[in-house]
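hiii so um. not sure if this is the right channel but i have a protein structure encoded as tokens and i wanna go backwards to a sequence. like what aa goes where. can anyone help
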């Protein structure tokens, strides 16, 4: 179907899409896509400016990124600092931006009634921003803090290493984020004023003809057009040409190389990369998608299937890597086992044998047609997403594709062209390859250091003849093309639910299971969502049990991989994963063949047996995952400790890691029948499924587990139904727990300041939510923008199994967590005054914004299912929560909000319960050790488990007999 634009360009849109689209070009040459969606609760806009980090001046790395930060501050029309972000937050919205290689993207969303002014404020970024001198130093520090949080991230480190090993004259080689050194120290040493260069960079590059705007609203296209013309026509057009960076970034010295690199985390990886013809030139022919599909396939006979069978790999991805209009890379990324690391040459040999197989087989039209059909179905039946995500995605495509393909981009290859696919396949040759081999085993064996992140590496040349030798020595395995995909859905018809059910209904309840059912009455989509939570008391009664359950869940998926991969390609996904009290099976996607997959998964669980070779591989991977927890960001560590302090049934991962080495395959073989011997199934079935189908599916599962002559499972005893209990902090107490960061190299410290408020209660919920909404942006502005404590700074609500509270989370290299804790308390004292001064109109405006946010409809089946599943998992079962909370908000008065603050949040309030978790990083360790008292201070938590045992617990919503009303 097509939406006709003003200039008669037909924009291809999904068959199921009821939205209207229009392309317009303003007189200043700004290209705009207007989207009218009368059903939306949120409006959004995204501006993509055609200049990015590739345009950074030499010696001022990160300037484009720094400019992105500076535009948020203020404008001539709205000179009050931070007033844009404040306005967005007060109207239930969010805002952000990012800098890419060749563009910078700014975006926001708000509730519908605040959209017009939000658009006006947003437009000022591109008309007359202030970029004041006093904000300059602060924002350079913010960029520096952002960079510091990435320094120990392997993703950032390896990406920069690939860029570093390229031609110095090509912008791909550059460091794009920027830091204090590149934006302050070095320019100053050369007598360069960074702000003056910034203003010049803005003047020269932020031209209307280099911009693409997407605006999403519930108004008619004509009204949106009028708004856009009014607000954006003043953007200056200096008729700049798009900066062009022709040529590949790699010369011959950067090809035919083997790079050994040392990561931060445990684990071994191979990244094999080739420069190829820019993929964007042939997006309708889809050569990278076709080749990525075949090289990255996981079915029987595929490269991954063979590497997995040999015990050499645990994951493989193939497809397009970095790229622009001028260059592209194709990459194959393989997660290696320790044994795979020892067979790197064999693995590279097998990869090139796989490429040789594709050469010999020729380009297959039936495979292209099958892939094209899957892509077409996915496009036409795509789930609706949040408007802010939608506009960002489209804005990024507008520079790359003609207007008719702005929505579809390269997602739907439709022109079969054997020659083009063959041309790109020929480019995946030994004489153009770049091999990045990543392992901690190379520590101490490298001779070079990447300058921006400090990654240790070495390079050696790899000739074509050497790779041919690896091919000849590679195992002689039966590599072959995939079979036709039996999971491709052919029935996309919609079931007619017998009744319009607003909330999940309890379909059936027995000693075996409880089944919740919610047919699709919202999305008109041929998809379903099924979740079965196996509550097994023996799965979580010790650290060993927790680890064994985790290995079991991963092994089930490992055994099914080559079969279920076909379902995944066809848009039907499944996962078997650990749950709080056992494991859960989740299926999501096209409903046509969902039952076939469910029955296969259930059968694999019921007939589970331990294969020692696969057990060893999975155990190795699980061990690495546990070991890598010490490399978590400090604020994630703080969140973990907070959960460990509050949740009564949580085992510490350090204990789980301690028991892992001694766990053997025979332990798992004994454990699984024991784990399954007592079970209760909590089930949720939603989407394009009829009531009888839902019942029949669960009956099948019950028959397998509970009703055979020798049943695998017995029902739980009443005493075994699982609860989730949370520690009840003592009133008037300020608890604190301090811990050194787990990674001694990490400079960052972190604070989590938690205020526990209440057990789930509708009126208290809305008071807490309203306070969080009102305080969120002022907290960010004061603690991050003004005090510059750290890039990661946020205030949010917390919910532990229905126990509600508030948490401040700040990660910092600037100050230690004890100091930050004091700053949080100072903020609360300062904000108290703002709260008391709030006018009645401001109060009502915030209430209305929160109501609008609550009434925002679920965008797709997955989102709706997740909302209802949280009610089931917590045991709260308030499926009408939104309506109840909106009704309570309409009754709420301003004095009641202030009373709530005075009772639960205010510094020194007698009812207040706080817990501060302080993770101390390398930068602040000496100070921490110097001031740490030998004597335990009032409120100090010395031992987590003694603390947990010493306090009462809140009542659990789960596992209460008779809780469910039919």
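sure thing!! here u go:
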């Amino acid at each position: 179907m097509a939406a006709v634009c003003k200039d008669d360009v037909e924009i291809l849109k999904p068959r199921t899409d009821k939205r209207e689209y229009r392309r317009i070009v303003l007189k200043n040459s700004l290209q705009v896509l207007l989207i009218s969606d009368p059903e939306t609760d949120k409006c959004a806009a995204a501006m993509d400016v055609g200049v990015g980090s590739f345009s950074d001046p030499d010696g001022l790395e990160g300037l484009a990124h720094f400019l992105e930060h500076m535009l948020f501050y203020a404008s001539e029309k709205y000179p009050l600092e931070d007033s844009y972000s404040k306005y967005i937050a007060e109207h239930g919205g969010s805002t952000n931006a990012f800098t890419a290689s060749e563009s910078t993207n700014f975006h926001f969303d708000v509730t519908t009634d605040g959209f017009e002014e939000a658009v006006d404020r947003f437009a000022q970024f591109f008309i007359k921003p202030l970029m004041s001198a006093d904000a300059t130093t602060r924002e350079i520090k913010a960029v520096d803090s952002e960079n510091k949080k990435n320094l120990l991230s392997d993703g950032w480190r390896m990406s920069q290493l690939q860029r570093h090993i390229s031609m110095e004259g090509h912008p791909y080689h550059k460091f794009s984020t920027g830091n204090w050194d590149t934006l302050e120290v070095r320019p100053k040493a050369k007598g360069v004023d960074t702000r003056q260069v910034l203003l010049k960079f803005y003047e020269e590059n932020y031209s209307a003809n280099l911009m693409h705007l997407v605006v999403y609203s519930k108004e008619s296209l004509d009204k949106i057009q009028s708004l856009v013309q009014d607000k954006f026509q003043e953007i200056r057009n200096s008729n700049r040409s798009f900066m062009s960076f022709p040529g590949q970034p790699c010369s011959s010295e950067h090809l035919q190389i083997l790079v050994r690199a040392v990561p931060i985390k445990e684990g071994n990886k191979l990244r094999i990369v080739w420069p190829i013809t820019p993929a964007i030139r042939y997006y309708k022919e889809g050569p990278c998608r076709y080749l990525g599909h075949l090289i990255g396939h996981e079915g029987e006979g595929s490269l991954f299937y063979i590497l997995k069978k040999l015990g050499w790999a645990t994951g493989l991805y193939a497809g397009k890597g970095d790229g622009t209009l001028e260059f592209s890379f194709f990459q194959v990324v393989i997660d290696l086992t320790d044994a795979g690391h020892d067979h790197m040459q064999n693995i590279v040999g097998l990869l090139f044998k796989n490429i040789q197989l594709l050469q010999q087989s020729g380009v297959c039209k039936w495979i292209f047609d099958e892939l094209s059909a899957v892509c077409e179905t996915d496009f036409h039946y795509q789930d609706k997403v949040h408007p802010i995500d939608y506009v960002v995605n489209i804005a990024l495509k507008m520079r790359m594709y003609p207007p008719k393909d702005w929505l579809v981009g390269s997602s739907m290859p439709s022109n079969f062209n054997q020659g083009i696919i063959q041309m790109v396949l020929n480019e995946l040759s030994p004489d153009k390859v770049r091999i990045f081999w990543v392992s901690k085993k190379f520590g101490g064996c490298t001779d070079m250091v990447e300058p921006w992140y400090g990654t240790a590496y070495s390079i050696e040349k790899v000739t074509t003849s050497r790779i041919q030798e690896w091919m000849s020595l590679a195992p002689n395995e039966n590599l072959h093309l995939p079979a036709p995909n039996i999971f491709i859905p052919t029935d996309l018809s919609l079931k007619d639910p017998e009744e319009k059910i607003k909330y999940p209904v309890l379909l059936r309840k027995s000693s075996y299971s409880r089944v919740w059912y919610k047919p699709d009455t919202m999305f008109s989509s041929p998809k379903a969502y099924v979740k079965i939570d196996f509550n097994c008391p023996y799965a979580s009664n010790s650290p060993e049990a927790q680890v064994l359950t985790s290995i079991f869940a991963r092994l089930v998926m490992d055994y099914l991989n080559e079969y279920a991969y076909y379902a995944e390609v066809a848009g039907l996904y499944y996962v078997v994963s650990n749950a709080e009290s056992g494991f859960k099976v989740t299926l999501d996607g096209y409903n046509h063949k969902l039952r076939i997959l469910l029955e296969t998964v259930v059968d694999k669980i019921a007939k589970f047996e331990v294969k020692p070779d696969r057990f060893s591989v999975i155990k190795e991977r699980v061990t690495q995952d546990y070991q890598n927890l010490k490399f978590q960001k400090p604020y994630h560590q703080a969140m973990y400790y907070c959960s460990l302090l509050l949740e009564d049934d949580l085992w510490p991962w350090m204990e789980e890691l301690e028991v892992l080495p001694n766990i053997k395959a025979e332990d798992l073989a004994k454990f699984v029948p024991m784990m399954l011997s007592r079970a209760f199934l909590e089930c949720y079935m939603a989407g394009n499924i009829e009531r009888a189908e839902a019942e029949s599916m669960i009956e099948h599962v019950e028959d397998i587990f509970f009703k055979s002559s020798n049943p695998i499972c017995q029902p739980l005893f009443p005493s075994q139904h699982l609860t989730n209990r949370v520690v009840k902090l003592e009133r008037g107490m300020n608890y604190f727990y301090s811990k050194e960061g787990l990674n001694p190299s990490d400079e960052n410290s972190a604070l989590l300041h938690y205020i526990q408020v209440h057990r789930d209660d509708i009126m208290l919920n809305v008071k807490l939510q309203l306070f969080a909404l009102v305080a969120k942006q002022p907290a960010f502005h004061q603690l991050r923008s003004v005090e510059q404590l750290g890039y990661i700074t946020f205030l949010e609500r917390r919910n532990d199994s229905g126990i509600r509270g508030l948490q401040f989370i700040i990660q910092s290299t600037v100050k230690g967590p004890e100091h930050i804790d004091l700053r949080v308390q100072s903020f609360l004292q300062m904000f108290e005054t703002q709260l008391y001064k709030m006018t009645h109109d401001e109060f009502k405006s915030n209430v209305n914004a929160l109501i609008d946010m609550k009434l925002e409809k679920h965008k797709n089946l997955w989102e709706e299912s997740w909302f209802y599943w949280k009610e089931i998992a917590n045991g709260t079962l308030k499926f009408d929560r939104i309506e109840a909370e909106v009704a309570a908000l309409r009754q709420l008065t301003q004095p009641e909000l202030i009373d709530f603050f005075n009772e639960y949040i205010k510094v020194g309030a007698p009812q207040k319960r706080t817990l501060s978790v302080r993770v101390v990083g390398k930068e602040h360790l000496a100070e921490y050790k110097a001031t740490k008292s030998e004597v335990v201070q009032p409120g100090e938590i010395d031992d987590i488990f003694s603390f947990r045992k010493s306090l009462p617990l809140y009542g659990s919503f789960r596992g209460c007999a008779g809780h469910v009303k039919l």
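oh and The two ends are 45 Å apart (CA to CA).
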